[in-house]
């Protein structure tokens, strides 16, 4: 069955290649640059590209702000998080801006025809003006008396007439949590409606001879700003403002106002001015009370489980929900598009090092329970600076005490936050605060279980690096009990012997200390707990599989070998609101230490899981 007209985008099959549609505009700018010998400052082809970029940044600004949960968590209208289904549905949210840019390019092309009319010349003269206050006054009047009622009645018709809603507007409302990107997401029909509504004040001002460059930029960016604000899902307007000046509540909508429409679908149809809902009898009278409740933070909910992570490196610091959703919703990789932002990320690293504390990054729900991820504002390399050790432990301790006050039941330590040399795998905090109600979990027992589960049952010997670490020790002791010979790479005979003595006497012979890589030349199962350089990887025979528990994971240089990913597990299918990937993990997959904390919480265990791994608990 053919899709209804204007219900799908003509360039949908192009995917990310849709941006080649900007090619003719870029070509025109380059052509004018070549002809003039300098940047064509007054070129409307250039203005179209600049306006596209500025509008994109407007949406991105509100998107970033709305997802900075450390600022906005108390004033979120809908307390849920965006899931992967919504992320994928809204992936091409910028189709609206692309369409309007192409319409603008068509208009500019018509003005520049050889048979340019007198009206075209007058229009081009107006476009050379930087500012004209008459145009702003005309645009404001046309917005109030044309754009607002036109949008109200068209939007109301989309909801009241079932065939129109199902074909053209239902997909927009399938996004359960509004974001600034939801504001631009829609069918071509919806986008054309917004184009007419947005363009009417501009067209009127130019037809009356009062147009200007400033009006085009100002009106377009203000329109996008207000749309993004309304869809941000964060209440930013104080109820005191409406109490001090009551008529203002009918002149400017709020995120709470828009959210009620998005959820209930039978009221609050206006563009920006609730006055038209009042006149049309569709104003939801819960709007002001909801706004007050949200702004005062009455919707805030304390988590029951917290995963306490840290930043891996500067590039990975940009793999967070408040930077680019197209990156954070896919496994981390060093995207070239992020390279220009590296200096900014570096500056933020220095800022966080000086004056930041642990903050909330993301959250999801599992079986009715709120799970959050907090991040210690420290980067991987800082954990190896002796002078930084005390400060990092203070950050972790403050996070634990805060979680305890909030009523968190389980806090799981990630990666280097549980480093043995740093805090004894969390033992430091449990010993210092024996009265803690929150259970501290390093999750390494489940991590060891996942790694061991991946080793084929017919393996007779393994090569283990990071052999005397917390995980290395547990893996070695477990494997020797299975009569698997473990070549433990360590220069410390004292640490090796200590571990060997922990094994039952009849199994100690299966633990073998090696100090170089040469003894592993015939071993095809490598368990990597310490970074391996390309030179060190060459000692492995062809066909070797590298199992990894080192962060960050080693790079795969050997084409004749295979490389496992970090130990991980998939969250249950009933997880809700999960829309970001955890570092290099796939969608819905978390590190095994994260999963270990989740299991600890779901099972209701009352003990702390800190310090050395209890090998008897692995199975």
From TrEMBL:
EC nos: 4.1.99.5
One GO CC term, this protein: endoplasmic reticulum membrane
Pfam families in UniProt: CER1-like_C (PF12076), FA_hydroxylase (PF04116)
Database matches in InterPro entries: CER1-like_C (IPR021940), Fatty_acid_hydroxylase (IPR006694), NAD(P)-bd_dom_sf (IPR036291), Sterol_Desaturase_Related (IPR050307)
Keyword terms, alphabetized: Endoplasmic reticulum, Lyase, Membrane, NADP, Transmembrane, Transmembrane helix
Topology relative to the membrane: Multi-pass membrane protein
Enzyme class: lyase
GO biological process: aldehyde biosynthetic process; alkane biosynthetic process; response to abscisic acid; response to water deprivation; wax biosynthetic process
Very-long-chain aldehyde decarbonylase CER1-like C-terminal domain: residues covered: 462-619
Transmembrane segments: 44-65, 135-154, 192-217
Domain Fatty acid hydroxylase: 141-282
Gene Ontology molecular-function annotations: aldehyde oxygenase (deformylating) activity; iron ion binding; oxidoreductase activity
Subunit structure as annotated in this protein's UniProt entry: Homodimer.
Family statement: Belongs to the sterol desaturase family.
Protein name, per record: aldehyde oxygenase (deformylating)
Organism: Oryza brachyantha
Lineage per the UniProt record: Eukaryota, Viridiplantae, Streptophyta, Embryophyta, Tracheophyta
């Amino acid at each position: 069955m053919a899709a209804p007209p204007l219900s799908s985008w003509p360039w949908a099959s192009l995917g990310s290649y849709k941006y080649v549609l900007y090619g003719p505009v870029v070509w025109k700018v380059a052509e004018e640059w070549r002809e003039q010998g300098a940047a064509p400052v007054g070129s409307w082809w250039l203005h179209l590209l600049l306006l596209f970029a500025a509008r994109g940044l407007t949406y991105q600004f509100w998107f970033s702000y709305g997802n900075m949960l450390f600022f906005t968590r108390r004033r979120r209208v809908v307390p849920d998080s965006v899931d992967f289904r919504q992320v994928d549905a809204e992936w091409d949210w910028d189709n609206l801006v692309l369409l309007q840019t192409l319409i603008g390019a068509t208009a500019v092309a018509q003005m520049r025809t050889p048979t340019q009319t007198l009206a075209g010349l007058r229009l081009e003269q107006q476009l050379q003006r930087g500012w004209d206050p008459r145009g702003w006054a005309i645009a404001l009047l046309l917005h109030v008396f044309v754009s607002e009622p036109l949008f109200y009645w068209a939007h109301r018709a989309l909801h009241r007439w079932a065939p129109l809603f199902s074909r053209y507007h239902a997909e927009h409302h399938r996004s359960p949590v509004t974001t600034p990107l939801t504001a631009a997401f829609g069918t071509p029909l919806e986008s054309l409606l917004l184009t007419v509504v947005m363009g009417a004040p501009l067209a009127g001002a130019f037809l009356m001879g009062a147009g200007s460059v400033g009006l085009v930029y100002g009106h377009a960016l203000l329109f996008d700003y207000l749309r993004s604000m309304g869809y941000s899902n964060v209440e930013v307007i104080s109820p005191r403002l409406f109490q001090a000046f009551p008529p203002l509540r009918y002149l400017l909508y709020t995120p709470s106002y828009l959210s009620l429409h998005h959820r209930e679908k039978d009221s609050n149809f206006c563009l920006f001015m609730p006055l038209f809902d009042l006149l049309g009898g569709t104003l939801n009278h819960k709007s002001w009370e909801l706004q007050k409740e949200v702004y005062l933070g009455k919707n805030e909910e304390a988590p029951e489980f917290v995963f306490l992570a840290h930043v891996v490196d500067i590039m990975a610091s940009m793999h967070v929900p408040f930077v680019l959703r197209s990156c954070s919703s896919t496994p981390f990789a060093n995207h070239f598009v992020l390279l220009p932002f590296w200096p900014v990320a570096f500056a933020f690293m220095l800022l966080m090092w000086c004056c930041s504390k642990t903050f909330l990054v993301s959250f999801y729900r599992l079986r009715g329970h709120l799970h959050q991820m907090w991040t210690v504002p420290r980067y991987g390399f800082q954990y190896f600076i002796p002078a930084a050790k005390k400060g990092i432990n203070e950050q972790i301790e403050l996070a634990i005490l805060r979680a305890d006050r909030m009523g968190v039941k389980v806090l799981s330590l990630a990666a280097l936050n549980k480093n043995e040399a740093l805090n004894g795998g969390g033992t430091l905090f449990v010993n210092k605060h024996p009265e803690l109600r929150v259970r501290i979990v390093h999750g390494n027992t489940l991590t060891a279980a996942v790694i061991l589960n991946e080793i084929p049952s017919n393996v007779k010997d393994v090569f283990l690096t990071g052999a005397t670490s917390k995980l290395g020790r547990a893996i070695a002791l477990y494997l020797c009990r299975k009569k698997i010979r473990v070549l433990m790479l360590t220069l410390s005979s004292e640490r090796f012997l200590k571990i060997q003595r922990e094994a039952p006497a009849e199994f100690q012979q299966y633990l073998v200390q090696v100090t170089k890589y040469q003894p592993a030349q015939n071993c095809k199962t490598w368990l990597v707990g310490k970074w391996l350089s390309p030179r060190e990887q060459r000692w492995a025979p062809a066909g070797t599989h590298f199992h990894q528990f080192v962060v960050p994971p080693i790079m795969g240089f050997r084409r004749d070998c295979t490389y496992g990913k970090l130990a991980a597990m998939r969250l249950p299918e009933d997880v809700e609101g999960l829309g970001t990937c955890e570092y290099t993990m796939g969608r819905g997959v978390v590190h095994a230490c994260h999963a270990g904390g989740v299991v600890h919480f779901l099972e209701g265990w009352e003990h702390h899981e800190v310090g050395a791994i209890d090998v008897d608990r692995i199975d």
